[in-house]
Structures are given as structure tokens and as C-alpha cells.
Design a protein that fits this description.
- About 0% of the residues have low confidence.
- Helix 8 runs antiparallel to helix 9 and helix 9 crosses helix 11.
- This protein has a two-stranded antiparallel sheet.
- The chain is globular.
- By secondary structure, the chain is an all-alpha fold.
- The longest helix has 19 residues.
- It is about 45% helix and about 0% strand.
- The protein has one domain.
- The chain binds fe (ii) ion (2 copies).
- The site of one fe (ii) ion has 5 residues, from loops.
Length: about 290
């Protein structure tokens, strides 16, 4: 399926927004020379497409839009798949920008999970790395890029100006709606993130699919891994309860694996399959409803 080439889908590749993430949050372990090289690699055309992507994301992610998407997708009547079928399905999202630099979806998942595994973390954490982006199958159900990837943020209350390209929120109808544009909006102090609607995308969708099966820290990682304005900027602590604050330590622990892992040698997916089959079987049912 062609997921680009129309005004709803400005990115050549749905992961191009991650270049922008790496520019905003560079790996503290890279040298200034490497950072410079990276800046040169992020060419101006890509900067413009990412900017356009956020322009339509910020304009369209309203409280009502999220309610509509929840109604549409949380019926889970689109497709039944095993984790393996979901990975194969996701991997049909072909990257057509630069085959040398960019990874296919399976490689991104495997590199993330293998780095977690190499650091000796528990198996559920490795599994979380292995599946955290499967919600991106939304693209293959015809959803526009801006409703699948990108930073996520709370809707129903004031948008933080630490969210990337905050100026684009001026085009969001909620920006001028007094119901939604105050600090707390429809929420109350420290009401807990479980009561807060996040902008719609692959994070919330996969969380909803898996919420009965994984340990709580894994679910937080999946649900909030793109919530940079909190896990990097701490802009929404006033909506969080004590449990959220505790669980966000795991979200923060996960983020560098997601953002900075680039293995010099690609993990061999065939050789690793038996290990992943075991942990998938340990935690997840044979078939999941998407
Ligand atoms: Fe993601
Ligand atoms: Fe990821």
C-alpha cells in the first residue's frame, strides 16, 4: 500500500520523524563530531517534510478526534494476527528513502530488544523492545502518518510549548476552546494518566491490544514511549499520580534503546527466532485482535 504521496502523508518514511527526535535529543554518548555529521545528514528537504508532518498532526489531533479513533479502533475488528504475522505485516511497510541507512521495521525492533537483552534486563523488558512499535500497523489500515507516529501529548488540556513545533497548535480547534485550553482542561490535578487522553497513534493502540497480558512497566513503556514532553521535558507532572511517576522511570530507561540503538552488525532474525518465540509464548496469546 502506498502510504505517502498525498498531502496527508508528507514523510517518505514513517520513521523520518525519528531523525528530528535525535536532533532534539542527541545521544549523550556521541561525540560533537558525530553530532555534526548527523546534522549534515538531516537534509533540508527532510526537515521540511517532518515540519509539514507536525503541522498536520498538531492541527488534527483534537480531543474529539481521539474519541473518534478510539471508537473506530478499540473494537479490534480489523484483523486477527499472531505477533509473528503482525511483524510480517508491519514489515511490508517498505522504506523507500535510503536502504543503506534506514532499517526495516523488524530490524528496528530486533536491535532495540537485543540491546536491552545485552544489558541483562528481564525477559518482559526484552519482549517490550521487540514489540513496542507493532501499533504502526495502523498505517496499513489506511491511517495517515500523523495519526500513527510522532510525539504524543495529552489532549483535552493546554498544549505544552515544549512539544515540538508548538506554534502549529494555533491551528488546532481545541487551542481556542475554553473547555480544553486551560492548564487542567477536562482533567483534575494529579488525576493519573490513565484518565488522560493522549493524541492518537501507535502507542495507545498497541497498549489497548496488549493491556491484559504484560507487566505494568511494559505497558507504560508501550503506551508512553513517544510522550517526549513528559519523559524528556517533565511538562505534565501535574496530571500524574504517584504510580505514574514511579512507572515513568521505566519509560525513561527504555527511551535510549529505542532512539539510539544502531547495531554495527545486523541481528540475524532467523537465528534469534527461537528465543523470541519462547518469550512471546510466555506472555502473549497465540492470536491477538487488531
Ligand atoms: Fe514507537
Ligand atoms: Fe521504536
Amino acid at each position: 500500500m502506498d502510504t505517502k504521496n498525498n498531502y496527508q502523508n508528507p514523510l517518505n518514511d514513517i520513521d523520518d520523524w525519528e531523525d528530528n527526535l535525535k536532533e532534539r535529543y542527541p545521544d549523550p554518548k556521541t561525540s560533537s563530531k558525530e553530532k555534526e555529521a548527523f546534522r549534515n545528514y538531516v537534509d533540508s528537504e527532510r526537515v521540511e517534510t517532518v515540519k509539514e508532518f507536525y503541522r498536520i498532526n498538531h492541527m488534527n489531533q483534537t480531543y474529539d478526534f481521539v474519541c473518534k479513533k478510539e471508537e473506530e479502533f478499540l473494537k479490534f475488528n480489523k484483523k486477527e494476527m499472531s505477533i509473528w504475522e503482525a511483524i510480517d505485516f508491519l514489515n511490508t511497510l517498505v522504506d523507500d528513502s535510503d536502504p543503506d541507512i534506514d532499517l526495516d521495521q523488524l530490524q528496528h525492533l530486533l536491535q532495540t530488544s537485543e540491546a536491552i537483552r545485552a544489558d541483562g534486563h528481564p525477559d518482559w523488558f526484552v519482549l517490550t523492545g521487540f514489540i513496542h512499535d507493532l501499533g504502526k500497523v495502523l498505517c496499513l489500515f489506511g491511517e495517515p502518518q500523523w495519526a500513527v507516529v510522532g510525539d504524543t501529548f495529552p489532549v483535552g488540556c493546554r498544549f505544552s510549548n515544549k512539544i515540538v513545533y508548538p506554534e502549529f497548535f494555533k491551528n488546532n480547534p481545541d487551542f481556542t476552546n475554553p473547555k480544553y485550553n486551560t492548564k487542567y482542561g477536562v482533567y483534575s490535578p494529579n488525576c493519573g494518566l490513565d484518565n488522560v487522553k493522549m493524541s492518537w497513534g501507535h502507542d495507545e493502540y498497541l497498549y489497548q491490544i496488549l493491556k491484559d497480558y504484560l507487566p505494568e512497566p511494559a505497558l507504560y513503556i508501550i503506551r508512553y514511549h513517544s510522550f517526549y514532553s513528559q519523559h524528556r521535558e517533565n511538562e505534565y507532572e501535574y496530571l500524574m499520580n504517584e504510580k505514574d511517576k514511579e512507572m515513568f522511570e521505566w519509560v525513561k530507561k527504555f527511551n535510549p534503546y529505542d532512539l539510539y540503538t544502531k547495531a554495527p552488525v545486523k541481528p540475524d532474525s532467523q537465528a534469534l527466532k527461537p528465543y523470541y518465540q519462547d518469550i512471546v509464548k510466555k506472555y502473549l496469546p497465540d492470536v491477538l485482535k487488531f
